[in-house]
Amino acid sequence: MKYLRLLTTIGTALIPVLFVAPATAQEVELDFEFFKNEVQPVFLAKRDGNIRCVQCHTRSSSFRIQPLEEHQLFFTEEQSRMNFESASQFVLPGDDPLKSRFLTHPLATEAGGDAFHGGGKHFGSIYDPEWRIMADWVAGATDRREPSSVEVRIIQTNAAGDDSHIIDPVTNKSIGRITDIEIPHGVVGAPDGSQFYITNESLHSLDIVDARTLRVKRRIALSGRPNNVSVTSDGSKVYVAIMQMPGSVDVIDVEKMENIKTIPVNGAIHNVYVTPDSKHAVAGSIQTSTINVIDTSTDELVWELEMDAGIRPMTFNAKADGSTDKIFVQLSGFHGFAVVDFDQRKEVARIEHPPARGQEAHYDGLQGAPAHGLGVSPDGKTVWSTSKVYSSVYIHSLPELEEIAQVYVGQHPEWITFTPDGKTAYIGAAGDHVTFAVDVESMKTVARIPVGQVPKRVAMVRMAVD
Question: How many helices (H) and strands (E) does the chain have?
C-alpha cells in the first residue's frame, strides 16, 4: 500500500501528516473490513475525561452506532454493516481528511476540527493514533499501515488494578498505561509488535490491545475465567489458560479474532506456555497437579504428567536444534522448583531454595506458592526463580543447576522477564507495587519502577512505533 505525506492546514500552519495515498479521490472505495476491525474499536474505547462514542451515538438520529446487548463484547456482522453505512454518510473518500465531518467533529478546534461536538472533543491532534486510523479509512485503507519502527518494551500487569504499565528498558521508566481492563492477568505481545493480548478476569475475555493507540480493539469471549496467556512464534494463535474445572485451554485465531476451540485438559489451568519451538502448548493445573501438553499443529492433548503438588509457574530451555529440553516447574507449597525432562516425560531433579542471606522470612499471603516466578535467561545459561518467602530471586547455572547468586527484589516478587539481549531482568514486586530491573551481568538491582496495584505477570514485548 502506498502512503502520502499531506500538508494539512492547522490554523495558519502547514503540517505534514502521513496518510494512505489513493490514486484519485474518484477511485477510492471505503473498505468494510478495515472499518470493522480497525475503526469500530475507536467507538468503544474509553478515553480519559470522555465518555465512549458508543454511549451517545446509539441514540443519535444522524450518525448512529448500533447498541451492544448486555454481555456482548463486540458488534455483530450485521451491526458492523449498519455502522459502516451510517459512518460513510459523513465521509468524503480520498479527499483532504479535514473535509470529512466524520473526522472533524471529534477533533479539537485548534487542530482543525469543528467548533462544537455534543459528545466532546476526543482527539487533540491529527497525530493522535486513533484519529489517524479513522483518517486512513477515509483515504481508502484496506490494511494496517506498517509501523515506522518496532521497539522493545516491558509490560507489567497490575493484578489488583485496572491498568498495565509500559516500561522503556532503556530509561527504566514507565512511559504509558493500558487502561480499561479490570483485573488484567496474563500478557503477551504479537511477534510483529502490532498488538498485545491481555486476559481480563473481570469480563472473562481476551482483550486485544492496539500497540499504536494502547486501546482495547477487541474483546473475545472465553469459556471461563482466564489466567495466563501465550502466543505462537508466528503470531497466528493465542492460547489462554481457563482457571475453572473441569479444565480447558482456549485457542484464539488471531486473523479471525475468534475463539476457535476449547481444548479439554486435566484440571483447571493456572498457566499455559508455548514451548520455544512453538510445537507444543504446556498447561499446568493446581487442582490436579498435572502438566498437560498440547500439540499446536492439531490442538489436541498429547500427553500429561502428574506431579506431587499443584503446578505453578513454568519455563523452558531449548536444545541446540531449538526443541524443548527441560521444563522448570514451581509447585504448590514448595520453596524452589522441579526439573522435568521433556522427552522422558518425568521429573529428573528438584532444587530447594535455602534461606536467603540477610533476609527475614515472610509467610503472610503466600497463597500456597512460596516460589512464584521463573525465567531462563536468553543465552540459556541461567534459570531465575523468585521467592516470596525471602523477597529474593535465586539464580542457578545451567545445566549444572548450581546456585550462583541471590538478589533482593522486593516484597512478594512474582514473574520474571528479560530483554532480548539478556542484559536486564524485570520482576514484579507485588508487595511493593514496583517492578525491579536487575542487571544480569552484575546481578544487582539497577531500578525500582513504580507501577500499579499488586504487579504480578510481566512480559517483554515488541511494540510498533508510528
Answer: 6, 30
36-76 residue pLDDT tens: 999 999 999 999 999 999 999 999 878 999 999 988 999 99
How is the beta sheet containing 205-210 ordered, strand by strand?
Answer: 184-189, 195-200, 205-210, 216-221
Q: Report how far residue 455's alpha carbon sits from residue 156's, in angstroms, rounded to the nearest whole number.
A: 6
pLDDT at 25: 53
Calpha distance 101→91 (Å, rounded) = 6
Instruction: Write the single-letter amino acid at 24.
Output: T
- For 432, the 3-state DSSP assignment is coil
pLDDT of the residue at 144? 83
Q: Are strands 163-168 and 216-221 parallel, antiparallel or unpaired?
A: unpaired
Residues belonging to the chain: 466
The domains located in the chain, with CATH, are 3-139 (no CATH), 149-465 (2.130.10.10)
pLDDT tens track for 204-245: 999 999 999 999 999 999 999 999 999 999 999 999 999 999
Burial class (CB in 10 A: 0-12, 13-18, 19+), 281: buried
23 burial level (CB within 10 Å; 0-12, 13-18, 19+): exposed
**Do 33 and 22 touch, CB atoms closer than 8 A?**
no
Give the pLDDT of residue 187: 98
| 162 burial level (CB within 10 Å; 0-12, 13-18, 19+) | middle
pLDDT of residue 193: 95
Q: What is the DSSP letter of 88?
A: H
Q: Which of 297, 327, 291 is nearest to 237 (CA)?
A: 297
Q: How far is CA 104 from the centre of its chain?
A: 32
Question: How far, in whole angstroms, is CA 417 from its chain's centroid?
Answer: 14
The grid cell for 292 is 498437560
Cα(460)–Cα(440) distance, integer angstroms: 15
CA distance 441 to 423: 7
Q: Is the pTM of this model over 0.85?
A: yes
Residue 267 to residue 445: CA distance in whole angstroms: 38
* Strand pairing report for 3-10 and 13-20: antiparallel
